[in-house]
Amino acid sequence: MLNVQLSNNSLRAFRSSFLDFVDDPFYVAQTKCVRYIPDGLLIVENGKVKELGSYESLKDKYSDISITAYPKMLCMPGFIDTHIHFPQTEMIAAYGEQLLEWLNKYTFPTEQKFKDKAYANKVASIFLDELLRNGTTTALVFAAVYPESVEAFFEAASQRNLRMIAGKVMMDRNAPDLLQDTAESSYQQSKQLIQKWHKKQRLLYAVTPRFAITSSDEQLRLAGKLLDEFPDVYLHTHLSENQSEVAWVKQLFPQCSGYLDVYEQAGLVRNRSVFAHGVQLTDAEFQRLSEVKAAIAFCPTSNLFLGSGLFKIEKAKSVEHPVKLGLGTDVGAGTSFSILQTALEAYKVAQLRQQKLSPFQALFLATLGGARALNLDNIIGNFDPGKEADFIVLDLHATPLMAFRNQDIMPTSIEALADTVFSAIALGGDRAIRATYIMGELAHERANTR
Amino acid sequence: MLNVQLSNNSLRAFRSSFLDFVDDPFYVAQTKCVRYIPDGLLIVENGKVKELGSYESLKDKYSDISITAYPKMLCMPGFIDTHIHFPQTEMIAAYGEQLLEWLNKYTFPTEQKFKDKAYANKVASIFLDELLRNGTTTALVFAAVYPESVEAFFEAASQRNLRMIAGKVMMDRNAPDLLQDTAESSYQQSKQLIQKWHKKQRLLYAVTPRFAITSSDEQLRLAGKLLDEFPDVYLHTHLSENQSEVAWVKQLFPQCSGYLDVYEQAGLVRNRSVFAHGVQLTDAEFQRLSEVKAAIAFCPTSNLFLGSGLFKIEKAKSVEHPVKLGLGTDVGAGTSFSILQTALEAYKVAQLRQQKLSPFQALFLATLGGARALNLDNIIGNFDPGKEADFIVLDLHATPLMAFRNQDIMPTSIEALADTVFSAIALGGDRAIRATYIMGELAHERANTR
């Protein structure tokens, strides 16, 4: 016990290059939002950031602590994945279908395995290790319909001391019998899980109706009731991903003016609500999300892989009606756990729409932007003092091709940095993640092999 | 000298699972075009395929030769990249522009370095090693405008005994002065390069006007003259990639009925012509390409990265007017040397157009389809006896995620194989390439690390 306490109280120091964001590069000039310290020193105390500054300015103050050095590497805040399904890990890269057929053919059969707690334990562990390998330190996670799957996930996240948000899927219609709960059972089970896990260690709960199609009016209403009863839990669901889905929602809810209105009428559109996709949203729906400060999880890999369409980033990041926006891998419809690779797909979506997504904008979405989308920017998302020290070390020369492209040097200007980090987005993937730290403790380290 | 000869004449045997194609899965039932031998033996003699069959059926016949075994792996013919730029290796993943701006901002400055033969040598070597790392054994390659760059490329390919096609860029307008040749100099230099390199060892030449925008009428005419004089060299250029490009071509060539017609009038649209992109092609142009048996290099990663648009695969692979089709990475506008990853991008392009591209269709394009597009299917593209033994060994469990998804087993049915190879397309990249063989000789081997 004494040892643990000593360890927790001890200071830790990390020397490397540092990049984080202090404001939003979609709205603020690069010079005012990008913080780049080519030779910096990060001091962590009790798992939290004590301070970050240039090595020169801090070295004398901390001359008595040993330093972990990552020369020619780039430290960033851990990545934040605002939409991912842990039970779909094993069905990643399932061939040939668009959303609704893909759910029936692959997803529903797979998720039935997660009633088995032992199996759910196993996959939760693989899933979290894969996130850490990819530099993701916080995620908003769909479990399966079974409470066991949520237990398995939170237990595994708890063992790793991770800042994770998850919830039990609520689904009482239009799905196989074995995967259905009822409005009442979903309410009771969710409530018990909230009481057991929400705010335990670093864990948080999200009320998680799958989407409008698989929930009755009553189930959606009870989801809203949970949000009333527990005002600091999240709402996490899917919204307007695919055209056939939107058409079906209109059939199922003729009394609603549109897809978002289905959730609105159930009291689910709030400040702590996170909606995955939003590819088919109308201007009025973007505006409404902006008004209530709800968030969208933009999942470009998934949207391309399932052929759902091209998300309108510029609508979410408009000056008039800004919507909180994060990146989501949406594994298993996304084919990569890497937020870097997801950022590349986001770039392609922008390009296809004749828009630009800059490297810093993409990395903002992956860090502070994601934290804002999850209302967690007071505790994670950058290196501000007091924030939880979840961070990653990027190796910008991780493959032979990256080594050749970026030579053996670190950028000295913001412009050169933009070019270099863009190559990590385009070429890096999990290999660009040399190390992942959780609360200042090493949680993943990659062997130094190209 | 004696040793070399002995080595060349010796038989080599490889035991593994084998996958190749004997016909086109876009037109022929899977059972009639996919050849899958779960436990096979490949016999190579003098660098060429002697025979391939089940291990059981061949083991007694070759009981006296030692066998190189790749258990739980998948041998395939080497991948064929039908469009790539070797001088753009170092500018891969250049940020933020669409085609014409991207050329001016990144490509032209970079290509000017390739007048320096020593520099070109260095990059040619890195480029070819990267191809082999990614399992690509044949490519149709743009060099730069300088003959030195072609010399460097062919020398490096010759040292590695590769089946490669390349040519000097012809470009006499709308480019920086330093990068321009003249119609006459481009004709003379190309001619000398053809005489020196075409059919030397395994090397072949392609007459390579960059695209209509950067060539005068006279230069295009002289390119056609080269094709007349050397009827078995290739024509390699760009066609209808981006809307602004097509509009500019119409301005530059008001006398032509369209972009393809510009090349047609110069005599460049032939059986051995390979046109990169074709994103903006009209139905009539697809039909014309079909009539003359010209080929298209479909470059999905590049088309998404530059926002050029979505290629209409089903037009190229129509029953009425089939066009020969291969996959191209188009590095540096493509962000990966991996044909597997390129196939995933092709899949996404199909999905966005509500089409399907099956794993076998994609791998056909990557092998026998590419060989047909290059008129090389008589000597490479599958394991038929007498073909050059360029092949790769795929590790379907190369990463922790692939290992989990595909378990530790090899598929026993064609259906299971389709699922497994699709995961290599979606998740594998260069890490799925355990080994690359050129003419039966090991040319790249990956360390067994996940």
Largest sheet of chain A: 9 strands, parallel
Low-confidence stretches of chain A: 1-8
Supply the number of helical segments of chain A: 18
Helix content of chain A: 25-40%
Number of strands of chain A: 16
Oligomer, anyone? homodimer
How large, in whole angstroms, is the Cα Rg of chain A? 21 Å
- Mean pLDDT of chain A comes to 95
Taken as a percent bin, the fraction of beta residues of chain A is 15-25%
From the spread of the alpha carbons, the general shape of chain A counts as globular
- Interface with most residues: A-B, 49 and 49 residues
Task: Give the termini separation of chain A.
Answer: 40 Å
Write the layout of secondary structure elements.
Two copies of one chain form a homodimer.
Chain A: H1 2-9, E1 11-21, H2 30-33, E2 34-45, E3 48-54, H3 55-58, E4 67-77, E5 79-85, H4 99-111, H5 117-133, E6 136-142, H6 147-159, E7 163-167, E8 169-170, H7 183-197, E9 204-209, H8 217-229, E10 234-239, H9 243-252, H10 259-265, E11 273-277, H11 283-292, E12 295-298, H12 300-305, H13 313-316, E13 324-327, H14 339-352, H15 359-366, H16 368-373, E14 391-394, H17 400-406, H18 414-427, E15 433-438, E16 441-445
Parallel strand pairs in A: 1-4, 5-6, 6-7, 7-9, 8-9, 9-10, 10-11, 11-12, 12-13
Antiparallel strand pairs in A: 1-2, 2-3, 4-14, 14-15, 15-16
Helix pairs in contact in A: 5-6, 6-7, 7-8, 14-15, 14-18, 17-18
Short synopsis of the structure:
The structure is a homodimer of 450-residue chains. Chain A is an alpha/beta fold and 450 residues long.
